[in-house]
Amino acid sequence: xxxxxxxxxxxxxxxxxxxxxxxxxxxxxxxxxxxxxxxxxxxxxxxxxxxxxxxxxxxxxxxxxxxxxxxxxxxxxxxxxxxxxxxxxxxxxxxxxxxxxxxxxxxxxxxxxxxxxxxxxxxxxxxxxxxxxxxxxxxxxxxxxxxxxxxxxxxxxxxxxxxxxxxxxxxxxxxxx
Length: 177
Description:
The protein is an alpha+beta fold. It folds into 2 domains: 7-16 and 104-175, Alpha-Beta Plaits, CATH 3.30.70.370; 24-100, no CATH class. The chain is 51% helix and 14% strand. The protein has 9 helices and 6 strands; from the N terminus they run E-H-H-H-H-H-E-E-H-H-H-E-E-H-E. The protein has helices at residues 14-22, 26-33, 39-47, 54-66, 70-79, 89-92, 103-115, 118-123, 147-164; strands spanning 7-11, 80-81, 84-85, 128-133, 136-140, 171-175. A 4-stranded antiparallel sheet has the order 4-5-1-6, covered by helices on one side. Strands 2-3 form a two-stranded antiparallel sheet. A hairpin with a 2-residue loop joins strand 4 and strand 5 (136-140). Helix 1 (14-22) packs antiparallel against helix 2, helix 1 crosses helix 7 and helix 4 runs antiparallel to helix 5.
């Protein structure tokens, strides 16, 4: 594995957090502030489908945000995509009550939040970003004895930026083995 022993940092449900702020969706905003709850588990329960349909639910929610046509989303939900089975016609209706927004707006907010971590990298040359994709990155920590401190600094910078803009997201840390 190319990133064996490194750490992945990912903003939890960041796109939804940005949308909750930009569209003033207070209930979603409040829900996302609770670190103990998963929006995806909540949506699966609401639509009354099992955990194995999580991917199609996530794809559809993000399709709404990024402006996919209703006709294509209906088809995606009912039939599925790329080997993922859909959820059927009866559950499809629940998804179409919010406006769409261009992906570039939401992704610009993700970038703005994630850029806050650069100050930590500037002050510590042992840290290296190995990969970066919108709301997450893989980091080489250098001195492993300072691992926890480095992770706290990175998370604090990123989460501080999100909090400053009232975007209810937080960093999930995953060790890559």
